[in-house]
Amino acid sequence: MIIFDNVWFKYGDRDYVLKNINITIKEGEIVCILGDNGAGKTTLLKHINGLLKPSKGEVYVDKLNTKETSVSDLAKKVALVFQYPERMFFTESVWKEVEFALANFGFEEDIRVHRIRKVLNMFWLWEYRDRSPFTLSGGEQRRLAIAIALAWDPKYVVLDEPTAGQDGFQREILIDIIRNIVYREKTIILATHDIEFVFELPECRIIVLNKGEIIYDGSSVELFNNYPELLIEAGLEPPSLSKLIQTLRKEGKYVVFKNYDDAVDKIYNLIKGG
Amino acid sequence: MSVISRFSKVFLFEEKDALLFRLDPRIKLIKSIILMVIVFFIQDPIKIGILMATLLVEFKILGKVLFKVLRSILYLTPILILIIVANYLATYDIIDTLSPLLRFLLFVMAVDLFFFTTSPDDFSLTLEALRLPMTISLSFSLALRFIPTLSMELNDIIEAQISRGLQLDKGNILTRIRNYIPLLIPLIVLSIKRSIEVAEALEIRGLRPGVKRTSYKTLVLSGVDYAYIIISLIIIIAIYLLELKHLISLAKL
Nearest Cα to A144, choosing from A80, A88, A87, A94? Predict the structure, then answer.
């Protein structure tokens, strides 16, 4: 369980970037943190593995206070995948890139081999194991970065802007990957401003950040159907289906869309019903 | 981690509302060079001490950068200790130890005088005023311009690798040096990529080496500039010619 208890944070003596953050994240949840550029998403994520410590308040990861725990101890539990993680590659092969973290965390040789084999297969990267990570395509590099993070079997996986610079096909793969990770009983926390991406993950819990404050914390279906104005307030564009819902409601047709497939069914029924 | 970011902050140019910042950069460069040269001619630690004191006053009152200068000297502590130890072991004389130390510090302050108070824009104008070829002056000013960007990027890389379990301060000296490889390689790769992007961006905006350019902003010397350099020269020459014996006898009177 991750607990943000009344967290305030500022860089140096500038204004607060995070204001009065209270979140409890349970095991097995997918949490999407939505917000405009500069809303404080990345700052919030960096608190989870202790890279940043709150100026006021506390953050607990499995009852460990991040102020009293080293980043390397927290990193074992919390894998943080940064925006553009492929920029951090430095070894000559995909295999070694995955092995780096495992070696840092002190895993034995046979466990390392087993884990690397497992994650590379899981992310369709096995055939590239001897290639330089720099020669992979953008999507493959992103997959490798997430594979690296899963290799040491962390309990929590934190993804910062996973869809940044990725095309539509790669985004679909990412959605599969995220579902796959949750299936393996991990908790996912991701920050993004890619609304359409979040819309395709209706099972996720959404937290909307606006200028460092939480303005919404709840289900995605509820947000997209009933509170699209909160997204606009946070400087985000509601998904196109959310706009369609509003238009239909103005016309007197009350509809609730859970996801794209559900929306397609309901619109089809509407048309058929005249 | 924080050491690196604090270290890079020293080199980050911060504009301040002070006389030294408004002076013509060429004037500051001339004074810097005069100070750097005179360091080799003054041996007396007391004279160097007086000269340093005038400079410190200048940093404080005319430049508001005293704190930054002192901090830049602080980062040189290992070199300072080396100078003290090496000279003392060679001479066993405190005066002979003090003299090279103070001369080194004066040299550093002369460098600071120009670099801490000259904006990257002024810096490139100075290089052009020195009639350096554009490729050289542009490379210099671009390099300066990218120090803050690179230090931010380095910070990101450090955070990412720490999140992958890298411990920088673990192990013996050799392992510690090796710990920096995961930081250096991404930094070099990023810098090369960035330099290619910058080159393309410059070409797109019509930059062509070898073509004579005119400046939007030109450097013009004002009365304040002349006054500053003349007063500075008088002080430096006076200190250089100062006979300490006379001073002591004057004090006795």
Answer: A94
